[in-house]
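To: structure desk
From: M.T.
Subject: fold request, one chain
Message: Could you run this one when you get a chance? Sequence is below, nothing fancy, just the single chain.
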Amino acid sequence: MNWRRGSETRSQGKKLLYPWEQASSLRSSTITGIIGDCDLLIGDFPETIFVSNYSMDFQQHVAIGSKTTMKIGGTARYYAELMTKEDVEQAWKFSQEQKLPLIMLGGGSNTIFADGEVNAVVCRMKAEKMTIDGNTVTVEAGKNLPMFINELAENNLDLSALTGILGTVGG
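Reply: Done. Structure tokens follow.
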């Protein structure tokens, strides 16, 4: 696998080498700058990484059927996993630049994708952090809903009316 940054190309066998893997101590702002400098990733692998001026990866032609509970569907033109509010903003901007619809995917329950390629930017919300402060609960959209309900019960908080609903807090 090769990656190319500017006029520099490096080879690392079969492993995709992101530029920031060379310096794992870099801050995320530095990582963003490095990705912005990346011109091209070259490789022979099934899920091609599309590098742009974003601090996250957009993969091309990713099988999305396996990301749903029904396990039905083809591939997404672009796919990304979102961890932060900034990732969501970047995904929206990327979809607008590509002139493609943005499809948000939570846990994949009640979702069936068409066979073949879905010409869209499909994003899965992976942010699942939860904090409890007394009776105040803050939870991110990617949190698995049944796990969320169980963790609330462990803290003597009741959301049992939602028991049996699959998916994530955000949908």
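Reply (cont.): The beta strands are 2-5, 8-11, 38-42, 48-50, 58-63, 75-82, 102-105, 117-125, 130-133, 136-139. Let me know if you need anything else for the meeting.
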